[in-house]
Amino acid sequence: MSSTFIGRSLRLSIFGQSHSEAIGMTLDGLPAGIPVDRDALQVFLNRRAPGRAKWSTSRREEDKPEFLCGLKDDCTCGAPLTAVIRNTNIRSADYSALKVLPRPGHADYTAEQKYGGYQDYSGGGHFSGRLTAPLCIAGGILLQELDRHGITVDARICSVAGIRDESPFLSPVKDKAFPVSDDEIGERMQQAIEEARTEGDSVGGVVECVIRGLPCGIGDPLFDGLENQIARLIFAVPAVKGIEFGAGFSSAEMRGSENNDPFCVRNGKVETVTNHCGGILGGISNGMPVLFRAAFKPTPSIAKPQQTVNLRTMEEETLCITGRHDPCIVPRAVPVVEAAAAVAVYDLILGEQLWN
Amino acid sequence: MSSTFIGRSLRLSIFGQSHSEAIGMTLDGLPAGIPVDRDALQVFLNRRAPGRAKWSTSRREEDKPEFLCGLKDDCTCGAPLTAVIRNTNIRSADYSALKVLPRPGHADYTAEQKYGGYQDYSGGGHFSGRLTAPLCIAGGILLQELDRHGITVDARICSVAGIRDESPFLSPVKDKAFPVSDDEIGERMQQAIEEARTEGDSVGGVVECVIRGLPCGIGDPLFDGLENQIARLIFAVPAVKGIEFGAGFSSAEMRGSENNDPFCVRNGKVETVTNHCGGILGGISNGMPVLFRAAFKPTPSIAKPQQTVNLRTMEEETLCITGRHDPCIVPRAVPVVEAAAAVAVYDLILGEQLWN
Amino acid sequence: MSSTFIGRSLRLSIFGQSHSEAIGMTLDGLPAGIPVDRDALQVFLNRRAPGRAKWSTSRREEDKPEFLCGLKDDCTCGAPLTAVIRNTNIRSADYSALKVLPRPGHADYTAEQKYGGYQDYSGGGHFSGRLTAPLCIAGGILLQELDRHGITVDARICSVAGIRDESPFLSPVKDKAFPVSDDEIGERMQQAIEEARTEGDSVGGVVECVIRGLPCGIGDPLFDGLENQIARLIFAVPAVKGIEFGAGFSSAEMRGSENNDPFCVRNGKVETVTNHCGGILGGISNGMPVLFRAAFKPTPSIAKPQQTVNLRTMEEETLCITGRHDPCIVPRAVPVVEAAAAVAVYDLILGEQLWN
Amino acid sequence: MSSTFIGRSLRLSIFGQSHSEAIGMTLDGLPAGIPVDRDALQVFLNRRAPGRAKWSTSRREEDKPEFLCGLKDDCTCGAPLTAVIRNTNIRSADYSALKVLPRPGHADYTAEQKYGGYQDYSGGGHFSGRLTAPLCIAGGILLQELDRHGITVDARICSVAGIRDESPFLSPVKDKAFPVSDDEIGERMQQAIEEARTEGDSVGGVVECVIRGLPCGIGDPLFDGLENQIARLIFAVPAVKGIEFGAGFSSAEMRGSENNDPFCVRNGKVETVTNHCGGILGGISNGMPVLFRAAFKPTPSIAKPQQTVNLRTMEEETLCITGRHDPCIVPRAVPVVEAAAAVAVYDLILGEQLWN
User: Fold this and answer.
1) Which of the other chains make 3 or more beta carbon contacts under 8 angstroms with chain B?
2) What 3-state DSSP class applies to D63?
């Protein structure tokens, strides 16, 4: 198991299980002197925290980080920064039956095979979506620092249950309870979520993220390009099954003459007329907004009966999952995507030391 | 610039520019005693090599690797394996004008900004699609070794220019000149490529890859999952703008009850009835075929006039690219995707040391 | 700052400052199912803990690890293992004057230059010897696992203040309060320490470590050999200024005919008659005991007045360090060396997956 | 086998066997625009090349690097830099008997065990001292770049066969055929080498290296300190069995009041009166010269009969090594130590991006 992101400059170690004493993260490689605004960080973490709306699990937990080290007077001191969140609202009983009855769409089965019965299956263990909370602590701190340098990272919901918001992503929507650009479409998305919930089912969706203000020259060809790095971090978020940059899969249907972004001069700067490449050419930022979309599958935990296999008897059985689960994790995934993008981008920027 | 893939067990260093003395690769971390069938490798490399068909550049070069070290009696000896391909058919004159006139859709502009005029712009330099040849040497060797252990990696074209082959991917098509399952649809795809070519334009497409025989338990949660690792390698292939696993972006439109793959028992083994997860749960293989699709943008080098900016005068100018270019790189990308997938998967398997 | 050891299989992240809320470590990459004997671990940690003898600082703290995650029923569960130790007995006032008056032999000056005034200078911050406690948690767990496979790691004091114990290192001395083979010489060493202490001074020494039971074949040539790996970890221990393997610096004075270890057959196995190479040939273990020695400089914190520079006024000043300091850290360093060696060796063994 | 140095910014891949087609190296991560003076590099490589003196093997080979890629107009272009040296003067017959008769002090036995008979034993294979040539290509280029920034790396012989040159290391001796400060003592060292040679024996020695001009602040505490990094690279040089920084093992015999280096002000700058710490405090450079010594064992290949074990019959046998071998590799190791130090230091500097 490797839960340590080894970036160009940063090492981010994420630890914890859904029902262990605590979850947390260590961020190593941060320069000294970066301020951490704890209140702003808490506001960011609350966007991910459960229990805020109907589409969210009723497990109510304050994702309140305790900083163990790495800060002095609320600035980074050069030493690794570690923060933990205690797990308090634990109902392990919910999960006891799942040991031999792996839930379809979950990692129960693969974990059982890989860890030979030693894994902590309770609450999803280390595979739980709860592990995105420490990722948000790291990302939340880096988002603050990026913002200080004029780099903003904004995500939004662009589709849920096949209902798409195709309006241009012009301004941030992160302050909205349901972060979508077109609120009417957002209303329909929420209805679809609510319908799924009442039917004991779940829905998925797509989150779009745009990074503005990134200077030209970040990233590299081949293995450490912006796309490689962002993809590597985004696939660390549970339930992500696809990622595309710029026009992405649509590019594959265009002609070169349509898809190529012509260069132009705007305000004395080289820009491109369109941005089908999503701000990335040859793995390197070109100064235009970096844009990507991540596809989230529907929450695998649903109330509807499902077929599984009893691993002890090797008989097929019907499984009914009880417990608290989001009928759609997409709204809570929006800040997580921002956090993952922030880690990806900040790590590459730090490697370039543009701000020295 | 980081052109070294640092895997769990392997280090793959890819080097060379389109018009340097040679291109090549070093594969470090291979166990001793792996046989290399040079003839079979050449057959594999020929699938990628240019000049074989109308959709391919007329630059004719045998991608014939010279092994400098790492082999003894055609078996790996435990030391790093290095192979190079000499660059022989070079027409640098074609590129001299592009120094100040960056080609839309290419890395000319970002490389100029990043490397401050020192980059080797000739022929695309280190950003050239030609650098996929060394990746294919590495992947070709590993594909042989995977095959010896019953693991097969097969890719095919599943769409070109918006024309989709939706037939199930049941059997390999790698021996076909145009590697598609439904040859009639393949015929239409080739027509679309030919039309684009005669119009001085290009088209893109989607390559699908399936890995069969992979045992359950390969990969990890969070940063080193199968999806993270495959994505990281696939985005090293120039022109890739998206990747999805299993049902991918379609998952995002399904309900959980549809998308979840019910577990069942087949021949005494746990399998899943459907495979929307693409053989991966929690970043770990579940024993079903691993399936992903990569979106390739249309070749950016087109004969049609395009708008660019003269970096010296900062005036907008019209650019006409001459020289030899593929109107569609998708057919030649098929073995490249197999190679990238082989590196990704073999590296993780080696880390598990399943075959000790 | 990089406080994450990235091994072949393990990632060990060490975090904390001398006076932060807590110090701790995350060990990622451990197989599932490794038992952790907490009592035995505490016994091991107590060997390093302060306040046990006259040569040790009077800061009294139980190095009692709290396990936050990674264990289930006292076995590793495959997820990262995190343990922390709360900092309780803190006397920050002791250190306030040192901000502008760097202590000779300490990292105060280099940290001030590197972190530009943001470092947590209190108690030595992240540079404190206290950070060897988390290293001992990691090492202590791995020592237990190595022992289960017949591999033992034993260190001893082989010199203090120039007084040498040259008796052969035949049996472990870890149970001794002063871990030396020849107790009479140990008595003299302790007198030398006590003399230094009463004079407000300190002494250094050499720790020797032997790893028995390591099979042949562990390690690699060039950058990841046993010597490189052990050295990399041992130099993470504060105050280490040298390391040598086998005959080490004495080898340099021998002839080849003396220094070469002739191969012989003992009990049907290939061994060597002598062990000047310290069990390592070409970076790889040869099946004989692996043997190395680490030189520790005298504790830089001494009561005697010392010359330093006031970084504010840039005047030379006399500094008198008060506070609690070991007149000799060598006795407490013995388990730390064992811990570092265990991490080094276990990581390479895991990479070979000898025990699968 | 891991022959790739993964530094903070650089990846250095070294490949080749003593008798393979070629040996070479790829240096990835170099900034674009670094000039390479090929003549000066050749002068540097000639210092390591064999066949120049009586103490050197009579294998005569020009270590003439062929640059395959990474340069444009003799400047780095941002892409990986690969250079190879063809192996031309190969006498494999010399080694055929050694397959079953491992040479004492060599890696023959450990390689046989590790690679199960697949290793390329001829000429020492990948374990050969010849692999220091590619290290010198990398180091030679970096030494030029360090020099441009006022950082010099100078090594010298400070002992051979127990004969010590204890004169202070004030000025470079690299232009001398026998690089020692005190030529009279150097004369005695050469006599000792010659005596050993005529007796079919060999001698070892110690190389000292000083790095001047390194600014304060390079390196980090714990695992990526200057000591860890230099040690990791120096132990990649065959025959090194020990390393010490500053006063090193002598520190262990001093008192703190002697060993601590008092801070002082010289020309308005903070310096230290003595330099027992070898320019490193807490893993970080303090602005004083960085100083270390590496112990080289005597060449294991000697003409004198030695006892070994026939691995086929498991009988003890007497081995007589013929072929061409240095009676002392220390003189040729001097530039190798400089090269390794240059890689270590440059990599850390690049990570700090001090020169941006």
Assistant:
1) A, C, D
2) coil
d(CA B67, CA B46): 17
Output the pLDDT for position A164.
Answer: 98
Locate the DSSP E strands across chain B.
Answer: 4-6, 11-15, 22-28, 66-69, 71-72, 75-76, 81-86, 152-160, 163-164, 205-212, 240-245, 263-266, 269-272, 280-281, 284-285, 290-296, 306-310, 315-319
Quote the CA–CA distance of B237 and A283 in Å, as a whole number.
10
Tally C-beta pairs within 8 A across A and D.
Answer: 10
Give the tokens for residue A40.
Answer: 């702003």
Which residues in chain D are closer than 8 Å to C138, comparing Cβ atoms?
none
Burial class (CB in 10 A: 0-12, 13-18, 19+), D195: middle
- Domain of B121, CATH number, reads 3.60.150.10
Q: What percent of chain B has pLDDT over 90?
A: 85
- Looking at the domain assignment, is residue A22 inside a domain? no
Would the pLDDT of C303 be above 80?
yes
CB-based contact C13 A13, cutoff 8 Å: yes
pLDDT of residue B90: 65
Coil, strand, or helix at residue D315? strand
Interface test with D, best of C136, C222, C274, C281 (most D CBs within 10 A): C222
- Across the B/C interface, how many CB contacts are shorter than 8 Å? 10
Q: Which two tokens stand for residue A137?
A: 């602590």
Q: Per residue in A219-243, is it b (16+ CB within 10 Å) or e — as a string?
A: bbbbbbbbbbbbbbbbbbbbbbbbb
Distance from CA of D65 to the nearest CA of C (A): 20
Determine, for residues D262 and C220 on separate chains, whether the beta-carbon distance falls below 8 Å. Answer: no
Structure tokens at D181: 């400060």
Does residue C74 belong to any structural domain of this protein?
A: no
Neighbours of B168 (CB within 10 A): 6
- D308: domain range? 93-352
What was the pLDDT predicted at A92? 57
* Residues in A touching C111 (Cβ below 8 Å): 78
How far CA D98 is from CA of C288, D93, D94, in Å, comes to: 21, 10, 9
Whether D356 and A351 lie within 8 Å, measured CB to CB? no
What is the number of structural domains in chain B? Answer: 1
> Nearest-CA neighbor of C253 among D334, D204, D202?
D204
Encode pLDDT of A291-321 as tens digits. Answer: 999 999 999 999 999 999 999 999 999 999 8
Subunit contact A32:C125, Cβ cutoff 8 A: no
Q: Which H/E stretch holds residue C86?
A: strand C81-86
Chain A touching partners, 3 or more CB pairs below 8 A:
B, C, D
Query: C61-120 pLDDT, tens per residue?
Result: 578 999 999 999 999 999 999 999 999 866 656 566 777 999 999 999 999 999 988 999
Residue B147 lies in a domain: yes
* Contact residues, chain D, for C25 at CB < 8 Å: none
- The verdict on a CB contact (< 8 Å) between A80 and C13 is yes
A252 and B205 in contact by Cβ < 8 A?
A: yes
Give chain B's mean pLDDT. 93
Residues 55 through 74 of chain A touching chain B, CB cutoff 8 Å: none
| CB proximity C87 to B under 8 Å | no
Decide: D68 and B21 in contact? Cβ < 8 Å. Answer: yes
- If one counts every other C-beta atom within 10 angstroms of the C-beta of residue D156, the result is 26
Whether pLDDT at B355 is above 80: no
Q: What's at C131, amino acid-wise?
A: L
Residue with tokens 């709360």: C86
Residue B338: CB partners within 8 Å, gap ≥ 6?
A: B139, B143, B153, B154, B155, B174, B209
CB contact under 8 A, B356 and C353: yes
Q: What share of chain A has pLDDT > 70, as a percent?
A: 93
Angle at B65 between CA B63 and CA B67, to 5 degrees: 175
- Residue C291: inside a domain, yes or no? yes
